[in-house]
Specification:
- With 67 residues, the chain is of the alpha+beta class.
- The protein is built from two helices and four strands; from the N terminus they run H-E-E-H-E-E.
- A four-stranded antiparallel sheet has the order 1-2-4-3, covered by helices on one side.
- Strand 3 and strand 4 form a beta hairpin.
- The longest helix has 12 residues.
- The termini are close together.
- The mean pLDDT is 86.
Length: 67
C-alpha cells in the first residue's frame, strides 16, 4: 500500500466481506483494523483477491501489503 488509491481499494475489498462493520486503514503502518464479526480468513482472501497480500498480526490487526 503506497497511496490513497490503495487505501480505497483495501477499504472497498474489506467492506464487501460479510460481517464487516467498519474498516480503518493506516497507510503509514501498513495495517488495517476491522470491526465486526467477519471471518479472518475471509478478510485475508478479500485482500489477496484485490492484489494486497495480507496476514493477521499478533495484535489481531490485519497486516497488509508487505507491512
Amino acid at each position: 500500500m503506497t497511496c490513497a488509491h490503495c487505501v480505497k481499494h483495501v477499504t472497498e475489498a474489506l467492506t464487501a466481506v460479510a460481517g464487516v462493520e467498519s474498516v480503518d486503514v493506516n497507510l503509514e503502518a501498513g495495517k488495517v483494523s476491522v470491526k465486526g464479526n467477519a471471518d479472518s480468513q475471509a478478510l485475508i482472501n478479500a485482500l489477496d483477491e484485490a492484489g494486497y497480500p495480507a496476514n493477521v498480526a499478533h495484535d489481531g490487526k490485519t497486516t497488509c501489503c508487505g507491512g
